[in-house]
Design brief:
- With about 350 residues, the chain is mainly beta.
- It folds into 4 domains: about 40 residues, no CATH class; about 90 residues, Jelly Rolls (Sandwich); about 40 residues, no CATH class; about 120 residues, Jelly Rolls (Sandwich).
- The chain is rod-shaped and about 160 Å long.
C-alpha cells in the first residue's frame, strides 16, 4: 500500500493499512513517511481549508487541506460531490445563497431549502454515493433553540411555556384572535367580576349608534329631539309703539329684552295672541330678532282677530345666540296684552 495522502486513503480495518510487517521498506516508503502522512491527515481534521467559491456542485470530497471550509459567493448549491460515508465538513457561509434539499444529494432539516446568511455555519456528513446530510445548522442571527425559519413550532411548545412577557408588543394581529361565533358580537364581559373575555350580543341597530362620532349624531340616529317652548309676554302696549318682549315685560331697547339660548337648534312655529283685537284697521306685528337682526319668523294680528301664527319659516340658533320678540302696534291700535310662544327643537 502506498503512503496515504488523504483520510480516504486509510481503511477502517487496522490490518488493511500499511506498512505491514511484510512490506518492502524503501527510501520513499519507510516507516517515517507513513508516520508523517498519518500525522498530517489527523491534523487536517482540525484545520481550516482554503475558501471555496459556491457552484451548483461544491465537491467537498476534493477538499483535503482542512475540514472547516468557507463557502463564498451566492450561487445555488445542489450537490456536494461524492466521498466515502462518514466524512464530515463544517461549512462557514460568507454570503446569502440557496442550499437545495434533495433526498438523493443533500438532506436538509425540515426537508426544505435553506437560504443562508453571512456567517451561518453548517455541519454536513457524507452518507456515500453522493448523498450528504446536514447534521446541524446554526444561524448567526438566531438562537439555537429557534427553527431555521425563525418560526414558532406549536408542537415544540410545552403547555404554559409562552407567557405574555415573551410576546412582543403589538405582535398579535386580529387574524390570530379566536373568531367570534356570529355577526353582531362584542367582546367584553357580561358575567360579574373578572374573568375570561365573553361574547356580548349586539344588534345592527346598536351598531348604527356605536359608530356615531358625538351626541348630536347619536340623537339624530335615535330620532331623539330636544323640544322646548320659548314664551314672551308683555303688559299693555299702547298704540304706535315698538317694544321688545321677554318672558314677563316689554322694553323700548332690544338689549333690555334679549336672552341667550343654551342649546343649538331651530326656532319655529311662532304663535301670538293678544288680550283683544287691535281695533278697526289696526294691527299688532311680531318679529323674531336674533343677535340684533330681524329674522323671517314673523306674524301679524289684524283686526278683528286676536291671534296669528307662522308655521312656515324657521330660524337656526346656536348656543349663546341672543333672541327677542319685537312687537309693533299700529298708529291707533288698542292697548292690549301680548303673548308669543315658539318651539325650539334640538337634535
Amino acid at each position: 500500500m502506498a503512503v496515504p495522502a488523504v483520510i480516504t486513503d486509510l481503511l477502517v480495518a487496522a490490518a488493511s493499512n500499511s506498512p505491514a510487517g511484510t512490506d518492502t521498506v524503501t527510501s520513499s516508503t519507510g516507516p517515517d513517511e507513513y508516520f508523517r502522512a498519518h500525522a498530517a491527515i489527523v491534523r487536517r481534521l482540525h484545520a481550516k481549508g482554503a475558501d471555496v467559491a459556491s457552484a451548483a456542485t461544491v465537491d467537498l470530497g476534493a477538499i483535503n487541506d482542512g475540514t472547516y471550509v468557507k463557502i463564498t459567493g451566492t450561487t445555488t448549491i445542489t450537490s456536494f460531490g461524492t466521498i466515502a460515508a462518514g466524512v464530515e465538513r463544517t461549512l462557514l457561509f460568507a454570503d446569502a445563497l440557496t442550499l437545495t434539499h434533495d433526498v438523493l444529494k443533500i438532506i436538509l432539516p425540515g426537508a426544505a431549502n435553506i437560504v443562508t446568511a453571512a456567517e451561518d455555519v453548517a455541519v454536513f456528513v457524507s452518507e456515500g454515493a453522493g448523498l450528504w446530510r446536514c447534521k446541524s445548522y446554526q444561524r448567526k442571527a438566531v438562537p439555537p433553540s429557534v427553527p431555521l425559519d425563525a418560526s414558532v413550532v406549536t408542537a415544540k411548545i410545552a403547555d404554559l411555556a409562552v407567557t405574555t412577557a415573551k410576546i412582543a408588543d403589538d405582535a398579535v394581529t386580529y387574524a390570530k384572535i379566536q373568531n367570534v361565533s356570529a355577526t353582531d358580537k362584542l367582546l367584553g364581559r357580561a358575567t360579574a367580576g373578572a374573568g375570561d373575555v365573553e361574547e356580548i350580543a349586539c344588534t345592527p341597530f346598536a351598531r348604527t349608534v356605536l359608530d356615531d362620532a358625538d351626541a348630536v349624531t347619536a340623537r339624530a340616529t335615535l330620532g331623539v329631539q330636544y323640544r322646548s317652548n320659548i314664551v314672551a309676554k308683555s303688559n299693555g302696549i299702547a298704540a304706535d309703539k315698538t317694544e321688545y318682549l321677554d318672558s314677563g315685560a316689554s322694553y323700548a331697547a332690544i338689549g333690555d329684552a334679549e336672552f341667550a339660548v343654551s342649546v343649538p337648534g331651530t326656532l319655529k312655529n311662532m304663535y301670538a295672541n293678544s288680550s283683544g283685537a287691535p281695533g278697526a284697521g289696526q294691527s299688532f306685528a311680531y318679529t323674531l330678532f336674533k343677535n340684533g337682526a330681524a329674522q323671517t319668523l314673523t306674524c301679524t294680528i289684524s283686526d278683528p282677530n286676536t291671534s296669528a301664527n307662522d308655521t312656515t319659516n324657521t330660524v337656526t340658533v346656536a348656543p349663546g345666540d341672543k333672541i327677542a320678540i319685537r312687537c309693533v302696534t299700529s298708529a291707533t291700535a288698542a292697548t292690549k296684552l301680548h303673548h308669543i310662544s315658539m318651539e325650539l327643537t334640538s337634535i
